[in-house]
Amino acid sequence: MLPAPSRFETAAFFCALASAAASSVSIAASQILLGASLAALLIGRVEWRAPRHWPFLAVFALLSLLSMAFSDAPAAGLPQVRKFYVWLMLVAVCSTFRTLAHARWLTLAWLAGGTASALLGLWQFASRYQHAAAAGENFYLAYVGSRITGFNSHWMTFSGQMMIVLLAGAALLFFGSPDKRTRRALLLCLPVVALALVLAFTRGIWIATAAALLYLLWYWKRWTVALLPAAALAAFLLGPASLRERVTSLVHPHGQQDSNLHRVYTFRIGLEMIKAHPFLGLGLERVGPNVTRFIPPDLPPQLPIGYYGHLHNIYIHYAAERGIPALLALLLFFIFTLKDWLARLRARPDAPGSWVLRAGVAVVLGVLVTGLFEYNLGDSEVLGMTLAAVAAVASPRADA
Fold first, then answer.
1. Model pLDDT for residues 200-221, shown as the tens digit of each residue
2. Whole-angstrom Cα distance, residue 148 to residue 145?
3. What is the pTM of this model?
4. Which residue of 108, 166, 188, 282 has the smallest Cβ count within 10 Å?
5. pLDDT at residue 254 above 90?
6. Three-state DSSP string of the chain
C-alpha cells in the first residue's frame, strides 16, 4: 500500500493532471495549472521526481544557454529560455502520479478534450468546404493554406495533438482492459479524432501516426497490421477528391502551393548552418534571421513560399540552432527512455501497466517520426502533451 498523500501532494496532483489534460485545449490554462502544481509541491515540501535519464535534458538546457550566450544576438533567445518552463511538466507529473488509475484519467481527459477539438475541426472543415463551393474556388488550393485547427491557431499543432490522443487512446483500448463504459467511450471518440486527423491534411503526421499504430497493432493482434494499409487504401479511393490530391502531392505537388520545395530549401539551408556552426549552432532564435545567408549555391536564391522562422525538422533545427551536441543530448534522453520501456515490456509483457508502456512508446515514436517533417517540439501544446506522456510512464509508481 502506498502512503496516503498529503493535502499539498493531492493539490499538486490534480493541478498536474489538469495541466497535462488542458494541453489538448488551452496552453494558457495548462501553464497556469502547471505553475499551481509546482507551487503546491514546493509549499508542501513534496519530493520532486523526474524521469531516470533527466541529466541528458540538463545537458541539452546547458548547451542551449551556451549557444544563446555565444550568438550574435543573445537577447533574441529569451523566448526559448522561457519555454524551458514547459519542460517542468516532467517534474509535476512524475512527482504526483502514483497509480495506473492516474495515467488512465489523463488518457480519458485527453480523449474528452481531443474529441471536442476534433468536432470543432470537423465543423471547420465543413464550413471551409461550403465556402469554397459557394465562391466557386478549387477547394484543395483554398484549403491547404487554411486548414482545420480545432482549439488551436495552427493545423500542425492540432494534428500533433490528435495523433497523441489517438495513440494513447488506442493503447488503452488494446491493452488496458477497459470496462464497458470506457470501451464505449473509446470506440465512439477515437474514430472522430482519427477522422479529424485525416482531414487536417498533415502528411508528415499521417506517416508518423501510421508508424506508431503499426507498433500498437503488431503487439495487439498481428493480423490487424494488414488492416491499416487496407483502411488507408479505402480512404484514398472512397474519400473526397481533395484527399486524393493531398496524398498524391507527396510526389506530384501543386507547385509552391504544397510545401515540397520549401522543405527541400529548409533542409539544405539547415545543413549549411550545421556545417558552419557544428558545436553551438547559430544561437537561440537565430535560424530564421539568417536563412538567406545559408542558401546553398546550387539552389536558386529566390526562396519558395513558406515559413522560415524554423526549419520544419527538429533534428536539423536543433543542430543548426543549438549545435550537434545539444541535439544528441535530447535524442539520448528519448532513446534511453524508450530502451528502458521496451526492456520492461520484454520482461513483463502482460503486466497490468503494460498499456501505459505501450502508450508511451507509441506516443514518443509518433513524435520522433513527426519531427522529421515538422518542428513539433517547438509547439508548447505538443511539447506539454509529449512530456506528460513520458512522465506518466516514467513515474516510479505508475505501473504499480
1. 999 999 999 999 999 999 999 9
2. 10
3. 0.96
4. 188
5. no
6. CCCCCCHHHHHHHHHHHHHHHHCCCCHHHHHHHHHHHHHHHHHCCCCCCCCCCHHHHHHHHHHHHHHHHCCCCHHHHHHHHHHHHHHHHHHHHHHHCCCHHHHHHHHHHHHHHHHHHHHHHHHHHHHHHHHHHHHCCCHHHHHHCCCCCCCCCCHHHHHHHHHHHHHHHHHHHHHCCCCHHHHHHHHHHHHHHHHHHHHCCCHHHHHHHHHHHHHHHHHHCHHHHHHHHHHHHHHHHHCCHHHHHHHHCCCCCCHHHCCHHHHHHHHHHHHHHHHHCCCCCCCCCCCHHHHHHHCCCCCCCCCCCCCCCCCCCHHHHHHHHHCHHHHHHHHHHHHHHHHHHHHHHHHCCCCCCHHHHHHHHHHHHHHHHHCCCCCHHHCHHHHHHHHHHHHHHHCCCCCC
Comparing C-alpha atoms, which of 164, 115, 105 is closest to residue 389? 164
What's the first-to-final CA gap in the chain, in angstroms? 10
- Please report where in the chains the cell 499543432 appears, as a residue: 157
C-alpha grid cell for residue 369? 517520426
Distance CA 342, CA 10 (A): 30
Q: Which of 304, 230, 233 is nearest to 265 (CA)?
A: 304
The span from the CA of 243 to the CA of 259, in Å, is: 16
Q: Rounded to whole angstroms, how far apart are CA atoms 42 and 40? A: 5
pLDDT at 400: 44
